[in-house]
Amino acid sequence: MAMVYFTSSRAPVEEPERWYQPQLSAINKLERLLERSGILDDIERGDQVALKTHFGVRGTTKPLRSVFIRKVAQMVKTKGGEPFVTETTGLGMTRERCFATGKIEAAEENGYTSQTLSAPIIIADGLKGFDCVEVCIDGAQLKKVYVAKHIAEADKVISLAHFKGHMNSGFGGALKNIGVGCVAKTSKYDSHIYDPPSINDLCDGCGACVKICPVDAIREWKVDIEKCIRCQGCAEVCEKGAISVKWTSPKDLSERFVDCAKAVLDLVGRENLRYVNFLLDITPHCDCCPFSDNAIVPDLGILASEDILAIDKAAVDMVNKAPILADSMAKKAKDKFHGMYGWTHSSYQLNAAKKLGLGSMKYEIIKVE
């Protein structure tokens, strides 16, 4: 049975006249949570420690607050570690989020800078998202995964996940933060799309796909599959719909990015990864969306664990037990994430991780005041 540590987001002021009670701050609660859980105890002097989070995109208003990441970075420094805050580029070749420069610009707009975070920002898969290390795995669906280079080079990785809903995978927590957020663009493609791109009869020979291809894999209106690095750029720029791609089903998407999470754990070493889920501003959508809807349940608190599956299972259970907020997307259902979307279910990720032996479905909640 895995240990999952929890601190509530409540700041119960029992004596209203005593307004100065800094111990009630969620930031100070986070510090006590990390100390009690011991997830930072094995950081050694000189360790390069990746703090993996999501910066949101332009238009997002409820990503994880920078003050929480700052506190973790400062605690890593007290252990002698060298923290850096990291993210990877998005799938595609046309939007700002597809490049390191755009990621950093969005991060700055949303309040994440080296000054606010007390640590440098490094985009882990390079300028365009192709800096990676190939890892062979025996996954449920994937056999090769391309892990972002700076994740591969880190001595320790701490997942700082804003736990929330997701329209295709049900929810986004530690599994998604590692399985999608720690891999390069090619593996993002392999998670989201079944086969490499191909050109169909709608092609009018405009040449837009040829121009955007970063590896010159399109010749005579055919895609050279051996050269293609599956960036999705050609499909993005084709106005005629002449690039055929088939997006994965919610179940297959979940299984594939859990395969990717396994590759990260295998490469970095499970003993070198730790997880913190922030059950705050629990919105229905991923922070990749250029907006933030109302939260579906009240703020619940923060979880910490050494087990990637147990922490996500605990988060899902807490959300499903929580009351629904008015004027939100949530509906009364045993699984709130299935209730919102209908075509996906939180069990897809959890069962996939269980089958791969990534952690335990059984957990014990240890409360930290």
Show unreliable segments.
Answer: none
> N-to-C SSE series?
EHEHEHHEEEHEEEHHEHEEHEHEEHHHE
Major beta sheet, specifics? 8 strands, mixed
CATH class descriptor name of the largest domain: Alpha Beta
Q: How many beta-strand elements?
A: 16
Report mean pLDDT, rounded to a whole number. Answer: 97
Total number of distinct structural domains: 2
CATH fold title of the largest domain: Rossmann fold
In CATH, the architecture of the largest domain is 3-Layer(aba) Sandwich
Tell me the overall shape. Answer: globular
Spatial strand arrangement across the major sheet: 4-3-2-7-14-15-1-16
Q: Can you count the helices?
A: 13
Task: Give the gist of this structure.
It contains 13 helices and 16 strands.
